[in-house]
Amino acid sequence: MRHVELEARVPAERAATVYEAMGHWERYPRLAPHVNATTVHAAPPAATCGSSWELHFRSGLLRWTERDDFRPQTLEIGFEQTDGDFDTFTGCWTMRQDDDDVVVRFEADFDFGIPSLEGILDPIAERVIRETVAWAVTGQFPATRLADADEFAPARPDTVAR
Protein backbone atom coordinates (compact mmCIF):
# COMPACT_ATOMS: atom_id res chain seq x y z
CA MET A 1 0.00 0.00 0.00
CA ARG A 2 1.42 3.38 -1.02
CA HIS A 3 0.79 6.50 1.10
CA VAL A 4 0.56 10.00 -0.41
CA GLU A 5 0.31 13.21 1.55
CA LEU A 6 0.57 16.88 0.87
CA GLU A 7 0.20 19.84 3.21
CA ALA A 8 -0.33 23.43 2.15
CA ARG A 9 -0.88 26.73 3.91
CA VAL A 10 -3.43 29.10 2.42
CA PRO A 11 -2.76 32.57 3.83
CA ALA A 12 -5.47 35.00 4.91
CA GLU A 13 -8.45 32.72 4.22
CA ARG A 14 -11.22 31.14 6.24
CA ALA A 15 -11.23 27.33 6.56
CA ALA A 16 -14.89 27.10 5.54
CA THR A 17 -14.14 29.00 2.31
CA VAL A 18 -11.23 26.69 1.44
CA TYR A 19 -13.30 23.61 2.33
CA GLU A 20 -16.10 24.74 0.01
CA ALA A 21 -13.67 25.41 -2.87
CA MET A 22 -11.69 22.18 -2.59
CA GLY A 23 -14.79 19.99 -2.87
CA HIS A 24 -15.79 21.31 -6.30
CA TRP A 25 -14.38 18.39 -8.27
CA GLU A 26 -15.83 19.75 -11.53
CA ARG A 27 -13.17 22.53 -11.45
CA TYR A 28 -10.20 20.16 -11.34
CA PRO A 29 -9.78 19.61 -15.12
CA ARG A 30 -9.19 23.38 -15.46
CA LEU A 31 -6.86 23.48 -12.45
CA ALA A 32 -4.65 20.44 -12.94
CA PRO A 33 -3.30 19.21 -16.29
CA HIS A 34 -3.24 15.57 -15.17
CA VAL A 35 -7.03 15.62 -14.75
CA ASN A 36 -8.62 14.66 -18.04
CA ALA A 37 -12.20 14.68 -16.70
CA THR A 38 -14.31 14.59 -13.58
CA THR A 39 -17.99 13.73 -13.32
CA VAL A 40 -19.87 14.69 -10.17
CA HIS A 41 -22.68 12.20 -9.63
CA ALA A 42 -23.98 13.84 -6.45
CA ALA A 43 -22.70 16.67 -4.28
CA PRO A 44 -23.76 18.27 -1.02
CA PRO A 45 -26.41 18.65 0.23
CA ALA A 46 -27.10 15.13 -1.09
CA ALA A 47 -26.74 12.53 1.65
CA THR A 48 -24.65 10.22 -0.56
CA CYS A 49 -22.08 11.92 -2.80
CA GLY A 50 -19.88 10.49 -5.51
CA SER A 51 -17.64 11.35 -8.43
CA SER A 52 -15.73 9.73 -11.27
CA TRP A 53 -12.20 10.69 -12.27
CA GLU A 54 -9.86 10.30 -15.24
CA LEU A 55 -6.20 11.25 -14.81
CA HIS A 56 -3.50 11.16 -17.45
CA PHE A 57 -1.19 8.38 -16.33
CA ARG A 58 1.77 7.04 -18.25
CA SER A 59 0.48 6.62 -21.82
CA GLY A 60 -3.20 6.22 -20.91
CA LEU A 61 -5.86 7.16 -18.40
CA LEU A 62 -6.24 6.16 -14.78
CA ARG A 63 -9.96 5.87 -14.01
CA TRP A 64 -12.01 5.39 -10.87
CA THR A 65 -15.33 6.19 -9.23
CA GLU A 66 -15.41 7.17 -5.58
CA ARG A 67 -17.85 7.72 -2.75
CA ASP A 68 -17.26 11.19 -1.31
CA ASP A 69 -18.05 11.87 2.33
CA PHE A 70 -18.41 15.63 2.92
CA ARG A 71 -18.21 16.53 6.61
CA PRO A 72 -18.68 20.32 6.86
CA GLN A 73 -18.83 20.26 10.66
CA THR A 74 -15.21 19.01 10.80
CA LEU A 75 -14.07 20.51 7.47
CA GLU A 76 -13.12 17.09 6.08
CA ILE A 77 -13.83 15.30 2.82
CA GLY A 78 -13.24 11.58 2.90
CA PHE A 79 -13.23 9.42 -0.21
CA GLU A 80 -13.09 5.76 -1.12
CA GLN A 81 -12.93 4.15 -4.54
CA THR A 82 -16.00 2.06 -5.35
CA ASP A 83 -14.89 1.00 -8.83
CA GLY A 84 -11.83 1.56 -10.96
CA ASP A 85 -8.20 0.92 -11.78
CA PHE A 86 -6.91 0.81 -8.22
CA ASP A 87 -7.39 -2.26 -6.09
CA THR A 88 -7.93 0.18 -3.20
CA PHE A 89 -7.86 3.98 -3.03
CA THR A 90 -8.97 5.87 0.09
CA GLY A 91 -8.14 9.17 1.66
CA CYS A 92 -9.15 12.43 3.22
CA TRP A 93 -8.88 16.18 2.74
CA THR A 94 -8.73 18.19 5.99
CA MET A 95 -8.94 21.95 6.33
CA ARG A 96 -7.90 23.57 9.64
CA GLN A 97 -7.86 27.22 10.67
CA ASP A 98 -4.44 28.26 11.99
CA ASP A 99 -4.66 31.90 13.09
CA ASP A 100 -5.34 33.87 9.88
CA ASP A 101 -4.31 31.00 7.59
CA VAL A 102 -5.78 27.65 6.61
CA VAL A 103 -3.79 24.43 6.66
CA VAL A 104 -4.93 22.02 3.95
CA ARG A 105 -3.87 18.42 4.38
CA PHE A 106 -4.44 15.69 1.80
CA GLU A 107 -3.71 12.05 2.62
CA ALA A 108 -4.42 8.96 0.56
CA ASP A 109 -3.51 5.30 0.46
CA PHE A 110 -3.63 3.31 -2.75
CA ASP A 111 -2.74 -0.10 -4.09
CA PHE A 112 -2.99 -1.31 -7.67
CA GLY A 113 -3.02 -4.92 -6.51
CA ILE A 114 -0.16 -5.84 -8.88
CA PRO A 115 2.89 -6.52 -6.68
CA SER A 116 5.20 -7.18 -9.63
CA LEU A 117 4.58 -3.66 -11.02
CA GLU A 118 4.39 -1.62 -7.81
CA GLY A 119 7.98 -0.42 -8.19
CA ILE A 120 7.08 1.08 -11.56
CA LEU A 121 3.44 2.20 -11.16
CA ASP A 122 3.33 3.40 -7.54
CA PRO A 123 5.94 6.21 -7.77
CA ILE A 124 4.32 7.57 -10.95
CA ALA A 125 0.82 7.45 -9.43
CA GLU A 126 2.08 9.12 -6.25
CA ARG A 127 3.62 11.96 -8.27
CA VAL A 128 0.49 12.43 -10.38
CA ILE A 129 -1.76 12.51 -7.31
CA ARG A 130 0.52 14.92 -5.38
CA GLU A 131 0.84 17.27 -8.35
CA THR A 132 -2.91 17.21 -8.95
CA VAL A 133 -3.61 18.15 -5.33
CA ALA A 134 -0.93 20.89 -5.40
CA TRP A 135 -2.33 22.38 -8.61
CA ALA A 136 -5.89 22.24 -7.27
CA VAL A 137 -4.99 24.15 -4.11
CA THR A 138 -2.61 26.67 -5.71
CA GLY A 139 -4.91 27.15 -8.70
CA GLN A 140 -7.77 28.25 -6.46
CA PHE A 141 -5.62 30.07 -3.89
CA PRO A 142 -2.50 31.38 -5.67
CA ALA A 143 -0.75 32.61 -2.50
CA THR A 144 -0.68 29.03 -1.16
CA ARG A 145 2.62 27.76 0.21
CA LEU A 146 3.33 24.02 -0.04
CA ALA A 147 4.84 22.56 3.12
CA ASP A 148 7.52 20.65 1.20
CA ALA A 149 8.09 23.16 -1.58
CA ASP A 150 11.84 22.49 -1.62
CA GLU A 151 11.21 18.84 -2.41
CA PHE A 152 8.12 19.27 -4.57
CA ALA A 153 7.19 22.10 -6.87
CA PRO A 154 4.77 21.33 -9.68
CA ALA A 155 5.32 22.95 -13.03
CA ARG A 156 2.79 25.61 -13.91
CA PRO A 157 -0.26 23.83 -15.40
CA ASP A 158 -0.11 25.88 -18.61
CA THR A 159 3.44 24.63 -19.29
CA VAL A 160 2.77 20.91 -18.91
CA ALA A 161 2.03 18.84 -21.99
CA ARG A 162 -0.69 16.22 -21.63
TrEMBL record:
<dbReference type="InterPro" id="IPR005031">
    <property type="entry name" value="COQ10_START"/>
</dbReference>
<dbReference type="InterPro" id="IPR023393">
    <property type="entry name" value="START-like_dom_sf"/>
</dbReference>
<dbReference type="Pfam" id="PF03364">
    <property type="entry name" value="Polyketide_cyc"/>
</dbReference>
<protein>
    <submittedName>
        <fullName>SRPBCC family protein</fullName>
    </submittedName>
</protein>
<feature type="domain" description="Coenzyme Q-binding protein COQ10 START">
    <location>
        <begin position="15"/>
        <end position="133"/>
    </location>
</feature>
